[in-house]
Specification:
It is built from ten helices and nine strands. It is an alpha/beta fold. The chain has a seven-stranded parallel sheet, with helices on both faces. A two-stranded parallel sheet has the order 7-8. Helix 2 packs across helix 8. It is globular and about 50 Å long. The N and C termini lie far apart (57 Å).
């Protein structure tokens, strides 16, 4: 195996903005080389140049749309050709579709299911099968506190986040005591372009009330610390922790109505 193949490498999906970009910077500060993927090649190149200049690490870019079922296999074929064996996988890429389900864009919702459910499952399977069992292997799946409750007006998005959370918990148990472990990060709303892309800039959740918007890199740092400590689930921010607790104890009908209120336009 080449020296490059023996280096520590992490794959971060959706690395050009938001929490994914935050993870890229957090991992780079740790001296971990990166493979970053997103749809926008120009933006990937900008992020690569910034990370390499600032942290003196190796950064490989793979422009891919992970809603394409062939993309995960293409990424791991690229890694094989480069002689790269990953130690860390960050499944972060995601987006939202807003509106009543009857009226919302079905094709976009199908893409979201492919990205949040199918791609996360594929990438995780491929990561585990390519790993070296002689080192510590870490998987960080980004879900959301949205995974704890049903989400009127964003019903498919919340359902896919629930899948990621359930999948991560089950896999963490399967891998207990092995060379690999899984952490599921469940953030609240983040200061990013996420709401704007989904046409949600005017919903209550995007206003920072009643849930404060957190900085993406701060959330990524909390997630990585939890990953190193082998925590199964982490909710960053004390307000988000309170909301997560309430979501688990409140009657489901009440939690659903409150969620709809938060997700309505102001």
């Amino acid at each position: 195996m080449s020296a490059l193949g023996r280096s520590r490498f992490a794959l971060v999906t959706g690395a050009t903005s938001g929490i994914g970009n935050g993870f890229a910077h957090v991992l780079a500060r740790e001296g971990i080389n990166l493979v970053i993927t997103a749809r926008n090649q120009t933006r990937l190149e900008e992020v690569r140049n910034e990370l390499e200049d600032k942290h003196s690490i190796i950064v490989k870019i793979i422009p891919r749309d992970l809603a394409n079922p062939e993309a995960p296999a293409e990424i791991f074929e690229f890694l094989k050709q480069e002689g790269i064996i990953l130690d860390v996988l960050v499944n972060n890429a995601g987006f939202n579709v807003y509106g009543k389900f009857e009226e919302s864009d079905l094709e976009e919702e199908i893409k979201m299911i492919r990205l949040h459910v199918v791609a996360v499952t594929q990438l995780t399977k491929l990561f585990l099968r390519q790993r070296s069992r002689q080192v510590e292997n870490m998987i960080l799946n980004v879900s959301s506190i949205a995974g704890l409750v049903p989400g009127p007006m964003v019903s498919v998005h919340f359902a896919t986040r629930a899948y990621i959370l359930s999948f991560s918990r089950a896999l963490a148990d399967e891998l207990r005591g092995s060379d690999a472990h899984v952490t599921c990060l469940c953030p609240g709303p983040i200061k990013s372009a996420f709401f704007g892309r989904a046409g949600m800039s005017d919903v209550r959740l995007a206003s920072g009330k009643p849930i404060k918007l957190m900085d993406a890199e701060t959330v990524a740092a909390i997630g990585y610390d939890a990953l190193k400590k082998r925590k199964v689930v982490v909710v960053p921010g004390y307000r988000n922790k309170i909301i997560a607790f309430m979501a688990t104890v409140a009657p489901r009908a009440i939690a659903t109505r409150l969620t709809r209120w938060v997700m309505e336009r102001i």
